[in-house]
Amino acid sequence: MMSKSFGTITNDVSNAIGSLRRDIPETIQGFNALAKASLSPGVLSALDKELIALAIGVSSRCDACIGFHVKALIRLGVSREQLMETLAVCTYMGGGPALMYAAEAVRAYEELSVRKSATASA
């Protein structure tokens, strides 16, 4: 049994961000503009940029970051091999704590990939 659901985590955080969007709309608009500009493809692809974002989420031990960036990576067609190589670098740079969150990123990938497959099949 999973200790946490990344689908639930991302849904709960999205709902909470909705409250922030209502109460501090300029801040959220600015953050969204920063995210859009930062993640848009350029010299690095959108996939490469999302892998970097996931690596920072793993290193920062941020469950919601892991969930959101894994969802984006799945949408962009990340391969399991690309994900695993990124998590290997996270583990190298962050040691044991990064390894624990790299494992969480694998769980997120497996959980959210199954959800995407189930949605696509329906």
TrEMBL record:
Transmembrane ranges, per UniProt, are none
Carboxymuconolactone decarboxylase-like domain location is 25-107
Q: Which InterPro entries match?
A: AhpD-like, AhpD_core, CMD-like
The record, for PANTHER family, names: ALKYL HYDROPEROXIDE REDUCTASE AHPD, BLR3452 PROTEIN
Q: Which NCBIfam families match?
A: ahpD_dom
Q: What is this protein called?
A: Carboxymuconolactone decarboxylase family protein
State the organism of origin: Candidatus Accumulibacter phosphatis
Question: What lineage, starting at the top, does this entry show?
Answer: Bacteria, Pseudomonadati, Pseudomonadota, Betaproteobacteria, Candidatus Accumulibacter
